[in-house]
Amino acid sequence: MGGDNGEAERRTEVSALHPKIQVQICEENGEKIFGPGPAELLRRVRDTGSLHAASKSMNMAYSKAMRIMRTAERNLGFSLLSGKAGGKAGGGSVLTKEGAAFLEKYEIWERQVRSCGMQYYRDIFGENAEEYDPAENGFKGTEQKQETSGENGDLSAVSIVVMASGYGRRFGSNKLLADLGGVTMAERTLDAVPVPMRKNTVVVTRYPEIAEMARMRDMRTVMNPFPDQSDTVRLGTKDCMEQSAGKCRGILFLPCDQPYIRPATLERLAMEFLRHPDDLTRLGKDGTVGSPMIFPESTFPALLAVTGDTGGREAARESGLPVHVVEAQFREELNDIDRPEDIDVSNQ
Questions:
Q1: Are residues 203 and 222 in contact, defined by beta-carbon separation less than 8 angstroms?
Q2: Structural domain includes residue 58
Q3: CB of 202 within 8 A of CB of 221?
Q4: The pLDDT of residue 14
Protein backbone atom coordinates (compact mmCIF):
# COMPACT_ATOMS: atom_id res chain seq x y z
CA MET A 1 0.00 0.00 0.00
CA GLY A 2 2.79 2.40 0.92
CA GLY A 3 4.51 1.71 -2.38
CA ASP A 4 1.30 2.40 -4.29
CA ASN A 5 0.87 5.76 -2.57
CA GLY A 6 4.44 6.73 -3.36
CA GLU A 7 3.93 5.83 -7.01
CA ALA A 8 0.75 7.92 -7.13
CA GLU A 9 2.55 10.87 -5.56
CA ARG A 10 5.39 10.53 -8.05
CA ARG A 11 2.98 10.47 -10.99
CA THR A 12 1.22 13.59 -9.68
CA GLU A 13 4.52 15.44 -9.43
CA VAL A 14 5.62 14.67 -12.99
CA SER A 15 2.19 15.05 -14.61
CA ALA A 16 1.19 18.63 -15.31
CA LEU A 17 -2.38 19.67 -14.62
CA HIS A 18 -4.19 21.69 -17.26
CA PRO A 19 -7.61 23.34 -17.14
CA LYS A 20 -10.19 22.93 -19.88
CA ILE A 21 -12.47 25.97 -19.95
CA GLN A 22 -15.61 25.84 -22.06
CA VAL A 23 -18.13 28.66 -22.24
CA GLN A 24 -21.64 27.65 -23.24
CA ILE A 25 -25.11 29.16 -23.25
CA CYS A 26 -27.86 26.80 -22.14
CA GLU A 27 -31.59 26.71 -21.55
CA GLU A 28 -33.05 26.39 -18.07
CA ASN A 29 -33.12 22.61 -18.44
CA GLY A 30 -29.40 22.56 -19.25
CA GLU A 31 -29.78 21.93 -22.98
CA LYS A 32 -26.95 23.57 -24.92
CA ILE A 33 -27.91 26.46 -27.18
CA PHE A 34 -24.58 27.97 -28.17
CA GLY A 35 -20.94 27.30 -27.43
CA PRO A 36 -17.46 26.85 -28.92
CA GLY A 37 -18.65 24.58 -31.76
CA PRO A 38 -21.36 26.85 -33.20
CA ALA A 39 -19.10 29.87 -32.66
CA GLU A 40 -16.30 28.29 -34.69
CA LEU A 41 -18.80 27.32 -37.38
CA LEU A 42 -19.99 30.93 -37.63
CA ARG A 43 -16.41 32.20 -37.80
CA ARG A 44 -15.65 29.86 -40.69
CA VAL A 45 -18.83 30.86 -42.51
CA ARG A 46 -17.72 34.46 -42.11
CA ASP A 47 -14.31 33.60 -43.56
CA THR A 48 -15.43 31.29 -46.37
CA GLY A 49 -18.84 32.72 -47.26
CA SER A 50 -20.36 29.25 -47.24
CA LEU A 51 -21.82 26.93 -44.61
CA HIS A 52 -20.85 23.98 -46.79
CA ALA A 53 -17.22 25.10 -46.96
CA ALA A 54 -17.21 25.91 -43.25
CA SER A 55 -18.50 22.47 -42.27
CA LYS A 56 -16.06 20.77 -44.63
CA SER A 57 -13.12 22.64 -43.09
CA MET A 58 -14.22 21.31 -39.68
CA ASN A 59 -14.63 17.73 -40.97
CA MET A 60 -18.32 18.03 -40.16
CA ALA A 61 -21.21 16.73 -42.23
CA TYR A 62 -23.15 19.52 -43.89
CA SER A 63 -26.39 18.09 -42.51
CA LYS A 64 -24.99 18.33 -38.98
CA ALA A 65 -23.88 21.93 -39.54
CA MET A 66 -27.38 22.80 -40.77
CA ARG A 67 -28.91 21.12 -37.73
CA ILE A 68 -26.61 23.04 -35.35
CA MET A 69 -27.46 26.37 -36.94
CA ARG A 70 -31.21 25.72 -37.05
CA THR A 71 -31.27 24.59 -33.43
CA ALA A 72 -29.33 27.66 -32.30
CA GLU A 73 -31.54 30.00 -34.34
CA ARG A 74 -34.72 28.43 -33.00
CA ASN A 75 -33.58 28.74 -29.39
CA LEU A 76 -32.12 32.23 -29.76
CA GLY A 77 -35.14 33.56 -31.61
CA PHE A 78 -33.32 35.14 -34.55
CA SER A 79 -31.43 34.12 -37.70
CA LEU A 80 -27.68 33.70 -37.52
CA LEU A 81 -27.15 33.13 -41.25
CA SER A 82 -28.78 34.24 -44.46
CA GLY A 83 -28.33 32.96 -47.99
CA LYS A 84 -26.70 35.00 -50.70
CA ALA A 85 -27.28 34.90 -54.44
CA GLY A 86 -25.13 32.64 -56.57
CA GLY A 87 -23.60 33.41 -59.92
CA LYS A 88 -20.72 31.42 -61.39
CA ALA A 89 -19.45 30.45 -57.96
CA GLY A 90 -22.87 29.37 -56.73
CA GLY A 91 -24.69 30.57 -53.63
CA GLY A 92 -23.44 30.78 -50.11
CA SER A 93 -24.12 32.06 -46.61
CA VAL A 94 -23.33 35.21 -44.69
CA LEU A 95 -23.82 36.16 -41.07
CA THR A 96 -26.89 38.27 -40.45
CA LYS A 97 -26.47 41.56 -38.60
CA GLU A 98 -27.90 39.90 -35.49
CA GLY A 99 -25.67 36.86 -35.97
CA ALA A 100 -22.50 38.93 -36.30
CA ALA A 101 -23.41 40.99 -33.23
CA PHE A 102 -24.19 37.87 -31.19
CA LEU A 103 -20.91 36.20 -32.20
CA GLU A 104 -18.97 39.31 -31.20
CA LYS A 105 -20.65 39.38 -27.78
CA TYR A 106 -20.00 35.68 -27.26
CA GLU A 107 -16.33 36.03 -28.19
CA ILE A 108 -15.83 38.95 -25.80
CA TRP A 109 -17.60 37.08 -23.00
CA GLU A 110 -15.61 33.92 -23.73
CA ARG A 111 -12.29 35.80 -23.63
CA GLN A 112 -13.17 37.40 -20.31
CA VAL A 113 -14.24 34.10 -18.76
CA ARG A 114 -11.12 32.32 -20.02
CA SER A 115 -8.82 35.10 -18.88
CA CYS A 116 -10.38 35.27 -15.43
CA GLY A 117 -10.53 31.48 -15.09
CA MET A 118 -6.91 31.01 -16.11
CA GLN A 119 -5.75 33.69 -13.71
CA TYR A 120 -7.49 31.97 -10.81
CA TYR A 121 -6.17 28.59 -11.94
CA ARG A 122 -2.57 29.81 -12.09
CA ASP A 123 -2.92 31.48 -8.70
CA ILE A 124 -4.15 28.24 -7.15
CA PHE A 125 -2.41 25.45 -9.09
CA GLY A 126 0.72 27.06 -10.48
CA GLU A 127 1.85 30.03 -12.50
CA ASN A 128 2.97 28.08 -15.58
CA ALA A 129 -0.27 26.18 -16.19
CA GLU A 130 -1.55 26.23 -19.76
CA GLU A 131 -5.11 25.90 -20.98
CA TYR A 132 -6.25 22.84 -22.90
CA ASP A 133 -7.55 23.88 -26.31
CA PRO A 134 -10.11 21.38 -27.66
CA ALA A 135 -9.95 22.96 -31.13
CA GLU A 136 -6.23 22.15 -31.35
CA ASN A 137 -6.41 18.95 -29.29
CA GLY A 138 -3.54 20.27 -27.22
CA PHE A 139 -2.38 23.00 -24.88
CA LYS A 140 -2.11 26.72 -25.46
CA GLY A 141 1.54 27.39 -24.89
CA THR A 142 4.19 29.86 -25.95
CA GLU A 143 3.06 30.26 -29.56
CA GLN A 144 -0.51 31.10 -28.57
CA LYS A 145 0.68 33.60 -25.98
CA GLN A 146 2.83 35.32 -28.59
CA GLU A 147 -0.11 35.59 -30.98
CA THR A 148 -2.30 37.34 -28.42
CA SER A 149 0.36 39.65 -27.04
CA GLY A 150 1.63 42.93 -28.39
CA GLU A 151 -0.13 46.08 -29.41
CA ASN A 152 -2.55 44.38 -31.82
CA GLY A 153 -4.52 42.55 -29.16
CA ASP A 154 -3.06 42.83 -25.66
CA LEU A 155 -5.58 44.60 -23.47
CA SER A 156 -2.88 45.14 -20.85
CA ALA A 157 -1.48 47.86 -23.14
CA VAL A 158 -4.55 49.97 -22.30
CA SER A 159 -4.86 51.42 -18.80
CA ILE A 160 -8.12 52.74 -17.35
CA VAL A 161 -8.63 55.78 -15.14
CA VAL A 162 -12.00 55.78 -13.40
CA MET A 163 -12.83 59.40 -12.61
CA ALA A 164 -14.64 59.25 -9.27
CA SER A 165 -13.87 62.57 -7.58
CA GLY A 166 -16.94 64.62 -8.50
CA TYR A 167 -18.88 66.57 -5.88
CA GLY A 168 -22.32 66.00 -7.42
CA ARG A 169 -23.49 69.55 -6.73
CA ARG A 170 -26.32 69.43 -9.30
CA PHE A 171 -27.39 66.04 -7.95
CA GLY A 172 -27.76 67.48 -4.45
CA SER A 173 -25.60 64.82 -2.79
CA ASN A 174 -22.80 62.39 -3.62
CA LYS A 175 -24.33 60.92 -6.77
CA LEU A 176 -21.69 58.20 -6.99
CA LEU A 177 -23.22 56.61 -3.88
CA ALA A 178 -26.80 56.95 -5.17
CA ASP A 179 -28.81 53.73 -5.36
CA LEU A 180 -29.40 52.17 -8.77
CA GLY A 181 -31.46 49.06 -8.30
CA GLY A 182 -29.73 47.85 -5.16
CA VAL A 183 -26.17 48.88 -6.01
CA THR A 184 -24.53 52.27 -5.99
CA MET A 185 -23.73 54.18 -9.15
CA ALA A 186 -20.03 53.76 -8.44
CA GLU A 187 -20.33 49.99 -8.01
CA ARG A 188 -22.22 49.66 -11.26
CA THR A 189 -19.59 51.61 -13.17
CA LEU A 190 -16.68 49.75 -11.57
CA ASP A 191 -18.33 46.42 -12.39
CA ALA A 192 -18.38 47.46 -16.05
CA VAL A 193 -14.58 47.34 -16.22
CA PRO A 194 -13.70 44.04 -17.98
CA VAL A 195 -12.00 41.61 -15.60
CA PRO A 196 -8.83 41.29 -17.75
CA MET A 197 -8.34 45.07 -17.56
CA ARG A 198 -8.84 45.56 -13.82
CA LYS A 199 -5.20 45.06 -12.89
CA ASN A 200 -4.42 48.07 -15.10
CA THR A 201 -7.22 50.21 -13.68
CA VAL A 202 -6.82 53.06 -11.20
CA VAL A 203 -9.75 54.73 -9.46
CA VAL A 204 -9.08 58.38 -8.66
CA THR A 205 -11.43 59.47 -5.89
CA ARG A 206 -11.80 61.58 -2.78
CA TYR A 207 -14.24 59.16 -1.15
CA PRO A 208 -13.07 56.32 1.16
CA GLU A 209 -16.21 54.30 0.34
CA ILE A 210 -15.32 54.22 -3.35
CA ALA A 211 -11.68 53.44 -2.58
CA GLU A 212 -12.89 50.35 -0.71
CA MET A 213 -15.11 49.35 -3.64
CA ALA A 214 -12.08 49.58 -5.92
CA ARG A 215 -9.95 47.52 -3.55
CA MET A 216 -12.56 44.76 -3.50
CA ARG A 217 -12.37 44.63 -7.31
CA ASP A 218 -8.55 44.46 -7.41
CA MET A 219 -8.21 47.99 -8.75
CA ARG A 220 -5.63 50.53 -7.63
CA THR A 221 -6.72 53.74 -5.92
CA VAL A 222 -5.31 57.26 -5.85
CA MET A 223 -6.88 59.58 -3.31
CA ASN A 224 -7.54 63.03 -4.74
CA PRO A 225 -7.69 66.05 -2.40
CA PHE A 226 -7.88 68.58 -5.25
CA PRO A 227 -11.02 70.28 -6.64
CA ASP A 228 -10.81 70.22 -10.45
CA GLN A 229 -11.43 67.54 -13.07
CA SER A 230 -7.97 68.22 -14.47
CA ASP A 231 -6.52 67.14 -11.12
CA THR A 232 -8.11 63.72 -11.61
CA VAL A 233 -6.70 63.52 -15.13
CA ARG A 234 -3.18 64.40 -14.01
CA LEU A 235 -3.20 62.03 -11.04
CA GLY A 236 -4.60 59.17 -13.11
CA THR A 237 -2.17 59.69 -15.97
CA LYS A 238 0.80 59.82 -13.62
CA ASP A 239 -0.25 56.61 -11.88
CA CYS A 240 -0.78 54.73 -15.16
CA MET A 241 2.61 55.78 -16.48
CA GLU A 242 4.38 54.76 -13.28
CA GLN A 243 2.58 51.46 -12.76
CA SER A 244 2.83 50.23 -16.36
CA ALA A 245 6.63 50.47 -16.47
CA GLY A 246 6.52 51.97 -19.95
CA LYS A 247 4.09 49.39 -21.39
CA CYS A 248 1.00 51.61 -21.44
CA ARG A 249 0.07 52.56 -25.02
CA GLY A 250 -3.17 54.32 -24.17
CA ILE A 251 -5.29 55.53 -21.26
CA LEU A 252 -9.07 55.15 -21.21
CA PHE A 253 -10.79 57.78 -19.05
CA LEU A 254 -14.07 56.42 -17.67
CA PRO A 255 -16.36 58.85 -15.80
CA CYS A 256 -17.81 57.11 -12.77
CA ASP A 257 -21.20 58.71 -13.42
CA GLN A 258 -21.75 56.63 -16.59
CA PRO A 259 -23.30 53.58 -14.91
CA TYR A 260 -24.99 52.18 -18.01
CA ILE A 261 -21.75 51.44 -19.86
CA ARG A 262 -21.28 47.73 -20.71
CA PRO A 263 -18.10 45.66 -20.22
CA ALA A 264 -18.31 44.49 -23.84
CA THR A 265 -18.39 48.12 -24.98
CA LEU A 266 -15.25 49.00 -23.03
CA GLU A 267 -13.46 45.98 -24.45
CA ARG A 268 -14.51 46.86 -28.01
CA LEU A 269 -13.28 50.40 -27.40
CA ALA A 270 -9.89 49.09 -26.26
CA MET A 271 -9.60 46.67 -29.17
CA GLU A 272 -10.38 49.42 -31.67
CA PHE A 273 -7.72 51.62 -30.08
CA LEU A 274 -5.16 48.83 -30.37
CA ARG A 275 -5.81 48.78 -34.13
CA HIS A 276 -4.90 52.50 -34.25
CA PRO A 277 -2.65 53.00 -31.19
CA ASP A 278 -1.41 56.42 -32.31
CA ASP A 279 -4.88 57.96 -32.62
CA LEU A 280 -7.73 58.95 -30.31
CA THR A 281 -10.61 56.51 -29.83
CA ARG A 282 -13.94 57.39 -28.29
CA LEU A 283 -17.47 56.11 -27.83
CA GLY A 284 -20.40 57.34 -29.88
CA LYS A 285 -23.90 56.49 -30.99
CA ASP A 286 -25.78 57.59 -34.11
CA GLY A 287 -23.56 60.61 -34.73
CA THR A 288 -23.29 61.69 -31.09
CA VAL A 289 -19.88 61.27 -29.46
CA GLY A 290 -19.03 61.19 -25.78
CA SER A 291 -17.02 59.42 -23.12
CA PRO A 292 -15.08 57.26 -22.58
CA MET A 293 -12.14 58.34 -24.71
CA ILE A 294 -8.76 56.63 -25.07
CA PHE A 295 -5.69 58.85 -25.35
CA PRO A 296 -2.52 57.52 -27.03
CA GLU A 297 0.94 57.69 -25.50
CA SER A 298 1.88 60.81 -27.48
CA THR A 299 -0.71 62.82 -25.53
CA PHE A 300 0.49 61.82 -22.05
CA PRO A 301 2.66 64.96 -21.59
CA ALA A 302 -0.34 67.15 -22.44
CA LEU A 303 -2.54 65.20 -20.02
CA LEU A 304 0.00 65.78 -17.25
CA ALA A 305 -0.23 69.52 -17.93
CA VAL A 306 -4.02 70.05 -18.08
CA THR A 307 -5.50 72.69 -15.78
CA GLY A 308 -8.92 73.90 -14.73
CA ASP A 309 -12.11 71.89 -15.09
CA THR A 310 -11.89 70.91 -18.77
CA GLY A 311 -10.35 67.49 -18.16
CA GLY A 312 -8.69 65.98 -21.20
CA ARG A 313 -10.84 67.73 -23.81
CA GLU A 314 -8.27 70.43 -24.43
CA ALA A 315 -5.47 67.89 -24.78
CA ALA A 316 -7.53 65.96 -27.31
CA ARG A 317 -8.34 69.08 -29.32
CA GLU A 318 -4.79 70.39 -29.37
CA SER A 319 -3.34 67.02 -30.38
CA GLY A 320 -4.92 67.26 -33.83
CA LEU A 321 -5.01 63.46 -33.96
CA PRO A 322 -7.57 61.45 -35.92
CA VAL A 323 -10.52 60.23 -33.86
CA HIS A 324 -11.96 56.74 -34.27
CA VAL A 325 -15.53 56.36 -33.01
CA VAL A 326 -16.82 53.05 -31.68
CA GLU A 327 -20.60 52.69 -31.82
CA ALA A 328 -22.20 51.94 -28.46
CA GLN A 329 -24.75 49.16 -28.48
CA PHE A 330 -27.23 51.29 -26.53
CA ARG A 331 -27.71 55.06 -26.49
CA GLU A 332 -27.91 55.19 -22.69
CA GLU A 333 -24.32 53.96 -22.41
CA LEU A 334 -23.25 57.53 -23.17
CA ASN A 335 -25.51 59.03 -20.50
CA ASP A 336 -23.89 60.62 -17.49
CA ILE A 337 -25.94 61.22 -14.37
CA ASP A 338 -25.98 64.84 -13.21
CA ARG A 339 -29.43 65.02 -11.57
CA PRO A 340 -31.71 62.47 -9.90
CA GLU A 341 -34.11 62.64 -12.86
CA ASP A 342 -31.29 61.47 -15.16
CA ILE A 343 -31.42 58.01 -13.62
CA ASP A 344 -32.91 55.65 -16.18
CA VAL A 345 -35.21 53.37 -14.21
CA SER A 346 -35.42 50.96 -17.13
CA ASN A 347 -31.73 50.15 -16.75
CA GLN A 348 -31.86 49.32 -13.07
A1: yes
A2: yes
A3: yes
A4: 37
**Final residue of a domain: which of 147, 171, 201?**
147
Q: What is the 3-state secondary structure (H, E, C) of the chain?
A: CHHHHHHHHHHHHHCCCCCCCCCCEECCCCCEEECHHHHHHHHHHHHHCCHHHHHHHCCCCHHHHHHHHHHHHHHHCCCCEEEECCCCCCCEEEECHHHHHHHHHHHHHHHHHHHHHHHHHHHHHCCCCCCEECCCCEECCHHHHHHCCCCCCCHHHEEEEEEECCCCCCCCCCHHHCEECCEEHHHHHHHCCCHHHHHHEEEEECCHHHHHHHHHCCCEEEECCCCCHHHHHHHHHHHHHHHCCCCCCEEEEEECCCCCCCHHHHHHHHHHHHHCCCCEEEEEECCEEEEEEEEEHHHHHHHCCCCCCCCCHHHHHHHCCCEEEEECCCHHHHCCCCCHHHCCHHHC
CATH number of the domain that residue 60 is part of: 1.10.10.10
| 141 and 228 belong to one structural domain | no
For residue 171, is it within any domain?
Answer: yes
Residues 105 and 192 grouped into a single domain = no
Q: What is the pLDDT of residue 20?
A: 78
Nearest residue to 323 (alpha-carbon basis) of 344, 292, 346: 292
Q: Mean pLDDT, 10 residues at a time, over the chain (348 residues)?
A: 51 56 86 89 87 91 93 92 58 84 84 76 65 46 38 77 88 86 89 89 97 94 92 96 92 95 90 94 94 97 90 90 91 86 59
Domain ranges, residue 231:
155-347
Q: Do 87 and 172 fall within a single domain?
A: no
Q: Is residue 326 packed enough to be buried (19+ CB in 10 Å), middle (13-18) or exposed (0-12)?
A: buried
Global pTM value:
0.62
- For position 136, what pLDDT does the model report? 43
